[in-house]
Amino acid sequence: MSTEIPAHPAIWSRLQTERQSGRLPHALLFVGAAGLGKAATAWQLAERILGRELRVTPADELPKDTFYLADEADFFRVSPQGSEIKISQIRAVEKALSRTHTGARVVILQAVDRLNVTAANALLKTLEEPPENTYFILLAQSDAGLLPTIRSRVVRYAFTAYDARTFAAWLATKQRSAKEARMLFAVSEGNPGLAVALLQGDLKASADAALTFFETLGASATPYLDLSALWQAHERAELSIYIHWLEWVAHDLAILITTNDATLLRLPFAENRLRKITADWDATTILEVTPILREALRANELYMATKLIGDMVILELNTLAERSRHANRSRSTF
């Protein structure tokens, strides 16, 4: 499978060792944030197990009224129908696996943290009595909501961000300079998927849009209307990147307000604009911004209406900004 996000180097090395020594588990759980290579690692492992290249990809749409995507009789990919994985999908895979087959088979369940309750119980039964020579690879951003009994039946692989050296080596394969690597590492926090998305856009323009959002919070007489226009300029696919940029601006504002140490900035090229924005915030309220933006990211991943997400963020951040300005005015009177 060709992908811009590679298999996770450390996890892949571990899987290779386990496979070569005959200790590869038959049920694996890949857990970690989006962009860390869970799908790429799962597909690469599946291709090694099956000894061929797969035609089905992680991004292929699941057609309406289709329970799963299959590639010949030995590979099955299950992904959410709408907002969840349903019991009908698990039952359909069970039926397919009940057919006689010679050789290994692989089932990849994407976003397994979105199993509904009945589907989770059905999957548990399958994991307790797995078909012979069949590998189950479960992908999730978090396993906190999975049944403890499912977690006990799988081997967990935690996907973490790249360290600076691994990140720089990966970016070097894309003909990116050491300077770009340092900036992207700071901004993406070592997440290659996020870095890929950033490289597909205009970094300075994206930073400018996020800075403008915070400047508008502090200066506009009609903040809701103006901020809504800024928010709605982004399609769903772009929205998560926009929210990340807002989060990075909030991070740098917090750094300047609490430590005044510009060497810790993720957006050092924007220091002058950031310092002007700090006048609208205090140390307490700026630290409340990031949790709001993290919640917005999660809502976007769950395909909530983008306007609803925008309304939530704008109203909450505008309330914080007003509170911060009031606190600053109160202090200035003493």
UniProtKB/TrEMBL annotation:
Classification via Gene3D superfamilies: P-loop containing nucleotide triphosphate hydrolases
Q: What is its EC number?
A: 2.7.7.7
For whether the record's keyword set contains Transferase, the answer is yes
What is an annotated GO biological process for this record, any one? Answer: DNA-templated DNA replication
Residues making up the signal peptide according to the UniProt record: none
Going by the UniProt record, its keywords in alphabetical order are: Nucleotidyltransferase, Transferase
InterPro entries this protein is in? DNA_Rep/Repair_Clamp_Loader (IPR050238), P-loop_NTPase (IPR027417)
Q: Name one GO molecular function term.
A: DNA-directed DNA polymerase activity
Is Zinc given among the entry's keywords? no
Q: What GO CC terms are in its UniProt record?
A: DNA polymerase III complex
Q: What is this protein called?
A: DNA polymerase-3 subunit delta
- Record the organism: Negativicoccus succinicivorans
